[in-house]
């Protein structure tokens, strides 16, 4: 599930933030980060995320970082919304503005 979330984030980057050419993905799941990194570095060229993976490979920089759960503000925001409100977010729906701001703050960095 966490790997799919990272793949969906690749797709969101491609669709909604194409002007950004460097990204850092943070997760508290080392296994998910390693699997996502393998998918980026060892392309199969097939599957529903093939176009998004190709987009990420063409970026100037892509970094995967392991962090503690408490340090991932976008994930915390989504978890809090899911627990405290009726929160339904499906494919094709636009991202909530507060989440976009957290993603931009959390995931983007200056390329080396």
UniProtKB/TrEMBL annotation:
<dbReference type="InterPro" id="IPR036397">
    <property type="entry name" value="RNaseH_sf"/>
</dbReference>
<protein>
    <recommendedName>
        <fullName>RNase H type-1 domain-containing protein</fullName>
    </recommendedName>
</protein>
<feature type="domain" description="RNase H type-1">
    <location>
        <begin position="2"/>
        <end position="82"/>
    </location>
</feature>
<dbReference type="GO" id="GO:0004523">
    <property type="term" value="F:RNA-DNA hybrid ribonuclease activity"/>
</dbReference>
<dbReference type="InterPro" id="IPR002156">
    <property type="entry name" value="RNaseH_domain"/>
</dbReference>
<dbReference type="Pfam" id="PF13456">
    <property type="entry name" value="RVT_3"/>
</dbReference>
<dbReference type="GO" id="GO:0003676">
    <property type="term" value="F:nucleic acid binding"/>
</dbReference>
């Amino acid at each position: 599930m966490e790997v799919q979330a990272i793949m969906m984030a690749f797709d969101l980057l491609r669709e909604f933030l194409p002007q950004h050419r460097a990204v850092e993905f943070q997760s508290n799941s080392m296994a998910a980060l390693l699997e996502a990194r393998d998918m980026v570095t060892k392309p199969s060229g097939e599957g529903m995320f093939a176009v998004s993976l190709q987009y990420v490979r063409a970026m100037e920089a892509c970094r995967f970082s392991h962090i503690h759960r408490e340090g991932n503000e976008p994930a915390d925001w989504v978890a809090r919304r899911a627990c405290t409100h009726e929160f339904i977010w499906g494919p094709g729906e636009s991202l909530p503005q507060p989440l976009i701001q957290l993603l931009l703050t959390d995931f983007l960095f200056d390329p080396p």
